[in-house]
Amino acid sequence: MSSVHADSTNPVSASRICSSGRHVEQLQKELFDRISSQYETHYDDISSRSYRSKFIYGPVFEGIDFSGMKVLEAMCGTGQTTEYLLAHGAAVTALDISPQSIESFTERWPECNAVCASILDSGLESNSVDCVVVMAGLHHLHPHVGDAIREIHRVLKPGGYLCMWEPHSGSLPDLVRRLWYRHDRLFAENEASIDFVSIKEEFSSLFSFEKHYFVGNFAYLLVLNSLIFRAPLGLKRLYTPVLMKLEPIVNMFQGKLLSCVALAQWRKL
């Protein structure tokens, strides 16, 4: 188990999270608890795991040796990234506000520590982890993305990594995404893409920005996000091989304007 623990001396307690922050996280907790079964079926099948392994983990974790590292898998769900982290030698602590998610995580990964708490106020010790991993979680937190990043900065050791991937603003897919979010019951009302230009300006004195990639096209949409398109799993298995071969070819040419997500690796100064 990881030796990362709750910090009893942390001056910010859960009771002091602003009412807006509590409302935002409650929206997301209720949403995930409602769709958790569907979510796991689509996002944790062999096709989606293959997509993340090939197109997300490689770039976003590039150059990091996880051997012996204390890694916080924040907004973890049931721990879809945990297998990769453990296989590369990390000691993983999971963090999620949903008791249902933490229960499922613990059943799935009993060798890991798990904390049921808010990413806005984790209660973990300051300067206690080597890396924080957030896989498509921050865009669920508007308007409190900055608050979450400040909490991540607090728990990271100096020189520690923040690795994340999120839908980003300033792209053509984001124009479609905005309309989709308004009408699809799979999304909460506060969800929006991340403006990486603004958050990099906001946190330029706290982090160095090591890597940044724009990726995601056909396989991202129809393989990883098959739930959003209500694709039957039988059909998904048929088209996945073709789209997985097409994805890297399109990635080479699409750039920020046509990509669906941004991958970022930051380091605490």
CATH H level, superfamily name: Vaccinia Virus protein VP39
By CATH, the topology is Rossmann fold
CATH class: Alpha Beta
Shape: globular
Q: What count of structural domains?
A: 1
CATH architecture term: 3-Layer(aba) Sandwich
Radius of gyration: 18 Å
Termini distance? 27 Å
Order of the strands making up the biggest sheet: 3-2-1-4-5-7-6
Mean pLDDT: 89
Number of strands: 7
Structural class: alpha/beta
* Element order: H for helix, E for strand: HHEHEHEEHEHHEHHE
| Unreliable segments of 5+ consecutive residues | 7-16
Describe the structure in your own words:
- With 269 residues, the protein is of the alpha/beta class.
- The protein has a single domain, classed as Vaccinia Virus protein VP39 (Rossmann fold).
- It contains nine helices and seven strands; from the N terminus they run ααβαβαββαβααβααβ.
- The chain has a seven-stranded mixed sheet.
- The longest helix is centred in the last third of the chain and has 26 residues, at 233-258.
